[in-house]
Specification:
Elements lengths: L1 E11 L12 E12 L2 E7 H7 L3 E13 L1 E7 L13 H14 L4 H17 L2 E7 L4 H14 L2 E5 L1 E2 L12 H15 L5 E7 L7 H13 L4 E6 L3 H10 L6 H7 L7 E5 L5 H10 L2 E4 L1 H6 L7 H7 L2 E4 L11 H14 L6 H8 L1 H6 L17 E4 L5 H8 L4 H11 L5 E6 L2 E5 L1
Parallel strand pairs: 1-4, 5-6, 6-7, 7-9, 8-9, 9-10, 10-11, 11-12, 12-13
Antiparallel strand pairs: 1-2, 2-3, 4-14, 14-15, 15-16
Helix pairs in contact: 3-4, 4-5, 5-6, 12-13, 12-16, 15-16
Bound molecules: guanine and zinc ion (ZN).
Amino acid sequence: MREAYRASIVHCLSDPGEGADPSAVEYFDDGLLLVEDGRIVELGDAKTLLSQCGDVALTEYPEKIIVPGFIDCHVHFPQLDIIASYGEKLLDWLDRYAFPAEQRFADRAYAEEVAGVFLDELLGNGTTTALVFGTVHAHSADLIFEAARIRGMRLIAGKVLMDRNCPQDLRDDPESAYTESRALIERWHGQDRLGYAITPRFAVTSSDEQLAAAGRLATECPDVWVHTHLAENNTEVDIVHKRFPTHRSYLDVYDQVGLLRERSVFAHCLHLDDTDRDCMANKGGAAAFCPTSNLFLGSGLFDLRSMREAGVRCGLGTDVGGGTSLNLLRTASEAYKVLHLQDQSLPATRSLFLTTLGAAEALYLNDKVGNFESGKEADFVVLDPAGSSLSARRTRVASSFDEKLFAITMLADDRHIAATYVAGKLHAIK
Ligand code: GUN
Ligand code: ZN
């Protein structure tokens, strides 16, 4: 039998932009989402649809809001246990916190435990799809894929490639990076809802030979993703410019080896110029905007307006453990502040876009997830405006739906996620 979910329902049809274009959004004050076999059948007004759709198993969520499942465009599962570590900027933070955390992943049992906890945290925060860094250990990718498969999640992940400027026991080499990644692609890519990402950490930690090997694999396997960091921190950018003096830019280092193409996702992208943005847009690459991480590590401010005007695909990333929350609404509230500082606007519906359909476009998954078009996979979240007593008070006096959604976005945490559905199945309810 079909399942039907009744609540206020909102989703994006396109990017509402800084002007919050209402035609980019579909909203039903009393909506009904019809689901069958894990897919969306139809979205519409509840009274109208209920009178037409015959027998359904009806679940009602009065006073709640249903939105598409959130999509995290950049996060590191092995860094879960070092979230909120004090005092450093990127390169020292890697040495002091991230690399030691990733060394612990040599222990398979520990890695397995973290993988499960991490995905349950994602789901508890309403995130149903993510693009995830592992560690250099191939088993880190096996374990996160296995945990995602058990939970029915759509997940893209990969083992990290790095062979320089990091601890010895976290190094692979160009040959093993290639062969292990290839074996993981064969094992996991396209299985259930899983996809593989070739994951060179960043130019700083890969030799020329390893970057070339990653690029070769990316060219041989055009339907797998590429996932790396780009132009996050000034010192990092200086190191890359000194090492590659004849390349036009940091992005050009990736481009020249074949790592910039459709399905390439670059975390951060803080220090780019217009040529980089045009190049990224033209070649189909995407940017993950990671505001909590960029603020926490003192890295800089993402220029969303310039990226979108150039036509770059953009989604939000939590970037835990550099980021300070796995909650994409909270991440959007920091994005609002980062953009406000640059005299840019981020209306609530555009936050919704960046965490759902925009993120799906960035990951080339918008034929599968991101909104409630008929036939897409039924990943959705039930938001509770009264998740905290303060947001209950604030949303009660909101005079429009936009005002209510904005207040929830600014005030939300995991208490505001009443339920998360993955391919039509309830995962977490509180
Ligand atoms: N650049 C290279 N590695 C990392 C990482 O683990 N986190 C962040 N934020 N930036 C990086
Ligand atoms: Zn990162």
